[in-house]
Specification:
Layout (H helix, E strand, L loop, with lengths): L3 E2 L10 H9 L12 H14 L5 E5 L2 H12 L4 E6 L3 H4 L4 H4 L4 E4 L9 H15 L5 E8 L10 H14 L2 E5 L3 H5 L8 H6 L3 E5 L9 E5 L2 H4 L2 H7 L8 H10 L4 H23 L11 E7 H7 L3 E2 L1 E5 L4 E7 L6 H13 L1
Parallel strand pairs: 1-10, 3-4, 3-5, 5-6, 6-7
Antiparallel strand pairs: 2-8, 7-8, 9-12, 11-12
Length: about 350
């Protein structure tokens, strides 16, 4: 029996509408490096969705590439980037940021995986009081929304963080690898216009939300806009066949497709989450996005593992582990129902 994957949100290829557009335009001749009509159309749709025509929009291949390119472009040699201890740049990117010469200044976070404006203020005040030119200078705050634990920041939290960053001269960068799932969450009050207004730079993830690959980087800060394509090229981020990225985001931002497929993934995640709650499992990071973390008995996981694939998070105690089940834009309802029935039968 072939196993059913709930391991991540990028196990499948791409939304059929994207594949159809790629096939239909396959033999067209266009300029390279993102200077084609499709990239221009996609960028314009994103600016329109953000309600800000002044934004610079660039398309890169993947999240790690985008993170290191933005961070290295923004920071001087003596500066580092603040993030949550669980942040992607701190845990899952093989020291990519550090390889560019910038220290990741990781802060402790709770079960929700978020850091606060108060924590950032404390870091900056302590730096100014204690070390200054003997310590790495904070130059940026990095947030993920949703976080690595599936939780989301509120509009109030983002505004407060942006205000503190402005006070201490830090850039605010938001990693939106799973942004669609966050914006579609039932308890979300953030919007693309708010993100454009209260960050210096953020990106809209495609790799995990329906695209074959690709992230749409949105820059509001004029200082960061300057010469950014030079830095993209230097970091290997200026794709020769850039139209492949433009076509995908042009499709995702046509008729609300991006938000539609993200919302469906969240609906399916709620069904799984409900079954786990009914079973009495502890959910350490309650959320309404597509990632479900649960502390489960090892014997139950062994049984589920015969048919379903999930990702391991951490050991809880001698008999329990915390794991993640993840829905995606391509998750099938019958597979969700099969998992729910399997949980109920444990």
């Amino acid at each position: 029996m072939q196993k059913i994957y709930f391991q991540c949100d990028y196990a499948e290829g791409a939304h059929p509408k994207i594949l159809a557009r790629l096939a239909a335009t396959n033999l067209e001749q266009t300029p390279g490096y993102g200077e084609d009509i499709y990239c221009a159309q996609a960028a314009e749709k994103i600016r329109k969705a953000c309600k800000d025509e002044s934004l610079a929009v660039h398309f890169l291949v993947g999240g790690t590439q985008t993170n290191l390119t933005v961070i290295d472009a923004a920071l001087r040699a003596h500066q580092g980037v603040i993030c949550a201890m669980t942040g992607h740049i701190n845990v899952h990117e093989t020291g990519a940021v550090e390889s560019c010469g910038h220290k990741v200044l990781a802060l402790p976070c709770g079960e929700d995986g978020k850091i606060t404006a108060g924590q950032v203020r404390k870091v900056c005040e302590e730096h100014n009081a204690l070390g200054r030119d003997h310590m790495v200078q904070p130059g940026m705050v990095y947030l993920s929304n949703p976080t690595e634990l599936g939780t989301i920041y509120s509009a109030a939290e983002l505004k407060e963080m942006y205000a503190v960053c402005g006070e201490f001269g830090l850039y605010l960068f938001l990693d939106g690898a799973r942004l669609g799932y966050g914006l579609a969450a039932s308890d979300n009050d953030l919007t693309l216009p708010l993100l454009a207004e209260y960050t210096d730079v953020f990106y809209i993830g495609g790799t995990k939300v329906g695209a074959l690959f690709g992230e749409a980087l949105v820059i509001g800060n004029d200082t960061l806009k300057k010469d950014f394509r030079y830095i993209m090229k230097q970091k290997g981020g200026l794709l020769a066949k850039g139209r492949l990225l433009g076509i995908q985001f042009d499709t995702l931002f046509t008729d609300g497709l991006y938000f539609e497929i993200a919302a469906q993934a969240n609906v399916y995640a709620e069904k799984i989450r409900g079954a786990m709650e009914k079973k009495g499992y502890t959910l350490p990071a309650p959320n309404h996005t597509n990632q479900i973390f649960a502390e489960m008995p090892d014997k139950d996981l062994e049984s589920l593992g015969e048919r379903f694939v999930y990702s391991y998070d951490r050991r809880v105690d001698d008999t329990h582990s915390c794991v993640r089940f993840c829905t995606s834009w391509a998750t099938k309802e019958e597979n969700v129902d099969a998992l729910v029935q399997a949980i109920e039968a444990l």
